[in-house]
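Friendly challenge for the regulars: who can give me the structure tokens for this chain first? No prize, just bragging rights.
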Amino acid sequence: MKPASNHDHHYLEELRMMLSRFPAGLQLTQADLAFTGWLFYREEEIGQNALSNREMISLLGRATRELGVQEDAAQPAAALERLLRFRIVRSVASGYEGSYALTRLGRSLAKGLLSEVNFTGDDLCTQINSAYAGMRAVLGEDSPDKLHDWLRYVFQRTVQESIDYKLRGIEEALQSQEQRIKEYGSSGETGQFETHLEAVRVSRKLLEELLDSVQEGSSYFPLIEELYRCRETHLGNTDLLHALDRSLDFLEGLKRRVEVMLAHLVAFIRSCVKYQGFVGAFSLRDRLSAVQLDLVRHALQREVRLPILNSSRPVRLSLEWNKDTAVQAVRIDASHLAALAEFIPEAVKSRGAQWRERFLSQARSEWDQRPDRDLVVWTRELIEHCDLELSEAMTGLWFLVQDMPEWKPDVSVKPGPGWRRLMPGTLVKNVTLFSDHTRPEANHAHG
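First reply, four minutes later:
Bragging rights claimed.
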């Protein structure tokens, strides 16, 4: 067995001192890590290390609220005592009693942990550039053994491990984000959904930065070319050839991995945008339904007359309205709807549906058989007969009103008391349809 050198004794002594200083390990909770990071950023922001006891307690309390730490040990006073015991925070000898600051251990721990979650394209590009520069420096020494050692102990360990961890962290973050967005989308909370959709867009930009790091213009392709060139030069060196092949496999797999991640995220964002358009279509339909409802009420309850042009003074228009139409039966004819058409929004007039003719054909047939109907009940029956969703009832009602002037026998309407439910969230004035061949009172009683 090889005897231990003085250098080994030095490491053994330091390791023993470390174990004696932390006999129970660190035993840090999530709250401890949160407080350590919070204090680190606070010191960086104000440029001041020592904080009074009151300031420290106030900062820890704010961190608890802002970060949503729910642990029992998150009470500020208890947290400060624990950080002192774990040597994350130390007491500072100053002009006033009870000052505290992060120790070197606490500061380095916070900096190291925060760097582990900093997944940026620039960092990856820097690593690739550094690897390329390191390889160029080793090639300048013209030593196959040094190149083998650099590939095996530097590139395939330090560089590869760092890049792989970075990409794995991004993948996990995107999966978690995607799951949250799907949950918000299925629950219909559009405000939260849009917030997370914006987070996906930010993540997509992050992946684009990563992809830029492995495309032309970075050191990615020059590094691959150098590895291939070395491979052709040292075909007889088995160990070096194996190290070169492993490095090439990693770099080529890195590019494929980033491209797959980007393609998946782009597809998911497209589905999110499509979902948003779907939600927006429902919102537009609801607004149109409200406009249609007002127009239908106006058409069925009041006699609308066209503006009359005064022959002696052509520039003047006279609108004549019958104030008693709210209690009298009204004949629906083309002139009424022609006047009303001027007030219909283009979005409503241009609305069409594939089932329109089938729906109206059934309505005309039933009107021929029995020209007395309760409008709301009859509209719902027609919707059900044509196997349509109840949400289409307002559109169907609008189609009926547009088509009624052409029906035989002629259609008249008489408002009744109260309102009837046409579809969820929509009430329509109780209206009875009848023809001149029957008594309105009888028809209304029938409806």
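The CA atoms of residues 359 and 386 lie 7 Å apart. Residues 238-301 form the longest helix (64 residues). Your move, everyone else.
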